């Protein structure tokens, strides 16, 4: 058990190491459950969104996560996808609610999980007022646990990951996701803009894995027009520590944009931001270099 005040914990290396260890174990536990249950008759609960379902597996994994974190890190609140409203939630634009907190999405990509499609994840992160401190993303179907801690780098199954100095966008893939109600405003123009530079756009159904693909060097960029904090926090920790650039919708660097983000290697971020900016604003904005 680790007991520290929120103020001191943010600067305590021992807490970061313990958080990374516990988060990794929780990610492994969740990956096993997801592999065993995906596509096996899960009945999603009805919600107001056709793209945001709730399952018993999600509830069970979140309860397990909350129990372990409450034991190991008492006094640090946990906000989550399934019980965010019940226990007090933290969504995009609300990152200042508490200086130190955990956020968890037990099954990111629920529609894929229910259908048995191999593209969903477990995401967990510890954050402070500056953004993610520790983040893990479990990719059960590929048998991978991705983990990162601030200023300690990213690892996949224990192997260090660092982005190459990519500058070419042609023949690349950009990942994006629908909003809770469907395509985001300007999404069609965004796809057209990317296609004009010979870049394909994919909607794969998991914000966490979309950003993770950039961190791994598989995707040219990820653009998310809206999201909840727990959707992206773990993956943003990975991307930042792998060397990716994170921009908000105005083209400004940010460790955790409150509403709308782009993640890309530094040499590609400017071009990728142009596809996004021209899709929903009359003129391109400035990108911090």
Automatic annotation (TrEMBL):
GO MF annotation terms: inositol monophosphate 1-phosphatase activity; metal ion binding
InterPro entries the record matches: Inositol_monophosphatase-like, Inositol_monophosphatase_CS
Required cofactor names: Mg(2+)
Pfam family, any one: Inositol_P
First-tier enzyme category under EC: hydrolase
Catalytic activity annotation: a myo-inositol phosphate + H2O = myo-inositol + phosphate
Domain of life assignment: Bacteria
Its EC number(s): 3.1.3.25
Keyword terms, alphabetized: Hydrolase, Magnesium, Metal-binding
Gene Ontology BP annotations: inositol metabolic process; phosphatidylinositol phosphate biosynthetic process; signal transduction
Chain segments annotated as transmembrane: none
Binding positions for Mg(2+) per the UniProt entry: 81, 105, 108, 231
SUPFAM superfamilies: Carbohydrate phosphatase (SSF56655)
PANTHER family per UniProt: INOSITOL MONOPHOSPHATASE, INOSITOL-1-MONOPHOSPHATASE-RELATED
Protein's name in the database: inositol-phosphate phosphatase
């Amino acid at each position: 058990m680790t007991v520290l005040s929120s103020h001191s914990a943010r600067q305590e290396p021992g807490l970061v190491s313990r958080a990374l260890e516990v988060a990794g174990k929780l990610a492994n536990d969740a990956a096993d459950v997801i592999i065993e249950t995906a596509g096996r008759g899960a009945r999603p609960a009805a919600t107001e969104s056709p793209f945001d379902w709730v399952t018993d597996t999600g509830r069970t994994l979140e309860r397990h996560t909350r129990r372990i974190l409450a034991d190991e890190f008492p006094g640090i609140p946990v906000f989550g996808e399934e019980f965010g409203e019940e226990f007090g939630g933290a969504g995009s634009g609300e990152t200042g609610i508490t200086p130190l907190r955990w956020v968890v999405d037990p099954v990111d990509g629920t529609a894929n999980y229910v259908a048995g499609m191999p593209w969903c994840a477990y995401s967990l992160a510890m954050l402070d007022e500056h953004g993610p401190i520790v983040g893990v993303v479990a990719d059960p179907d590929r048998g991978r646990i991705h983990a990162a801690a601030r200023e300690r780098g990213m690892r996949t199954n224990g192997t260090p990951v660092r982005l190459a100095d990519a500058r070419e966008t042609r023949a690349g893939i950009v990942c994006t996701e629908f909003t809770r109600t469907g395509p985001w405003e300007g999404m069609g123009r965004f796809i057209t803009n990317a296609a004009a530079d010979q870049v394909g756009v994919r909607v794969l159904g998991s914000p966490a894995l979309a950003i993770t693909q950039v961190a791994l060097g598989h995707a040219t960029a990820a653009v998310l027009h809206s999201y909840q904090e727990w959707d992206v926090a773990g993956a943003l920790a990975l991307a930042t520590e792998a060397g990716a650039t994170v921009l908000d919708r105005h083209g400004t660097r940010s460790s955790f944009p409150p509403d709308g983000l782009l993640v890309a290697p530094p040499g590609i971020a400017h071009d990728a931001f142009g596809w996004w900016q021209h899709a929903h604003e009359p003129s391109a904005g400035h990108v911090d270099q």
